[in-house]
């Protein structure tokens, strides 16, 4: 899965370079680059298959800033790189050993989407789809586990939103994304449960953002 995802991301980047070479048009005010700063709510739609002890996963909602950078091939088509990081509390719930506090983990999920913008006025809706790479870091295993390890994940992203132009340069933005991502987690609970437990965790967050942007 990871090799397939990486290959698709490379292919998307190669396609971007080809389009840049073939099409030097810009968006409607002559700008090729667009930057947005959003405040986002990251709400996991989580589930888990936990070995041996059963149960499910509970992952907290996070509120964080997000930066995105867009390059416009023409006034309709663009490629956007979305950058943010968020900390989530994690718990295994309803297991044979009860609810287990698994501390917290930071997620770094850079996401690359291709977008189509419906132009024709100050209200500019868009749709997008792309790939996501999620890196897990800063793990705090909590009071029960000796260690928790999360595998890097490659998944897919869908996106929809709109820009509302305040003038030729500045605009407001509302954006909704759905990421389809999962990870294999390994929980070393030797001290408490005399076991190491594996889990297949689907995170699949909804990401809802509001912000401001500028065209350069």
From TrEMBL:
Gene3D superfamilies for the chain: 2.40.160.20
Keyword Phosphoprotein: no
Keywords: Signal
GO cellular component assignments: outer membrane
Signal sequence segment: 1-21
GO BP annotations listed: transmembrane transport
Alphabetized PANTHER family for the sequence: OUTER MEMBRANE PROTEIN W (PTHR36920:SF1), PTHR36920
The protein's name in its UniProt record: OmpW family protein
Species assigned in the record: Flagellimonas aquimarina
């Amino acid at each position: 899965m990871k090799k397939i995802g990486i290959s698709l991301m490379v292919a998307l980047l190669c396609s971007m370079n080809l389009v840049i070479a073939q099409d030097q048009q810009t968006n409607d005010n002559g700008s090729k680059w667009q930057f947005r700063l959003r405040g986002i709510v990251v709400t996991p739609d989580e589930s888990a298959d936990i070995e041996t002890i059963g149960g499910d996963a509970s992952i907290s909602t996070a509120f964080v800033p997000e930066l995105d950078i867009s390059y416009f091939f023409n006034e309709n088509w663009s490629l956007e790189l979305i950058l943010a990081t968020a900390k989530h509390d994690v718990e295994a719930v309803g297991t044979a050993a009860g609810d287990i506090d698994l501390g917290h983990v930071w997620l770094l999920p850079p996401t690359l989407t291709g977008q189509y913008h419906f132009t024709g006025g100050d209200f500019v809706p868009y749709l997008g789809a792309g790939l996501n790479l999620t890196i897990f870091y800063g793990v705090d295993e909590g009071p029960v586990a000796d260690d928790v390890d999360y595998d890097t994940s490659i998944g897919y992203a869908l996106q929809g939103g709109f820009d509302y132009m305040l003038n030729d340069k500045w605009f407001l933005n509302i954006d909704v994304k759905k990421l389809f991502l999962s990870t294999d987690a390994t929980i070393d609970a030797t001290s408490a449960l005399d076991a190491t437990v594996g889990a297949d965790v689907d995170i699949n967050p909804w990401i809802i953002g509001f912000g401001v942007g500028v065209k350069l």
